[in-house]
Prior knowledge:
Elements: E1 2-5, E2 8-12, E3 17-19, E4 21-24, E5 35-41, E6 49-55, E7 58-60, E8 70-72, E9 83-85, E10 94-101, E11 109-118, H1 128-177
Parallel strand pairs: 2-11
Antiparallel strand pairs: 1-4, 3-9, 5-6, 5-10, 6-7, 8-9, 10-11
Amino acid sequence: MDVLVAQQINALNGTMVRISCSFTSCYRLDPTKFAMNWTYQETFNDTEEMFMTFKNKITPLRTDRFGDRVKFAGNLDKNDISITISDVQLTDEGIYNCYVRNPPDRIQGHGVIQLSVVTELPPPRDSTIAVAIGASVGGMLALVILSMVVVKCVRRQKKQELISDEQKMEEEGKTDGEGGTEEGTKQL
């Protein structure tokens, strides 16, 4: 059994956050045998505090820390046991563990998520300079390519004219040398 989680999640204080946890199993989920637990701990050294469980049904455990702010947001038919926390608080920061047991799988799945709560979002990146530089470089490349195409076309045109002129001269030379008389060499 494999458990799939994001190892690090950032949440803005006062908003809602989804903490995703899904699993893969070789066996189909049987609700009578399936078990799931969600726990919270402030640091890796602290004791885990269980706040949600599944044993025949989803049971959120009311805790002082979360009250009724934690909801099951997954879909057991899709092996998704995600949760949401509404009105995220600075005290919600910590380590979230999702445990999954799906007999006859012998291995219990375990996912660990580090939730960080921030008071403000980082400022958006100003990409104006990058766009201007990219556009300038792109424009220069386009001009270079265009000038190369024009030069090649002009050279090809001149080459065609030279070939055409040489062919005309050869044809004129053939007619003069095949029996035509030139003015300075009349026979008597």
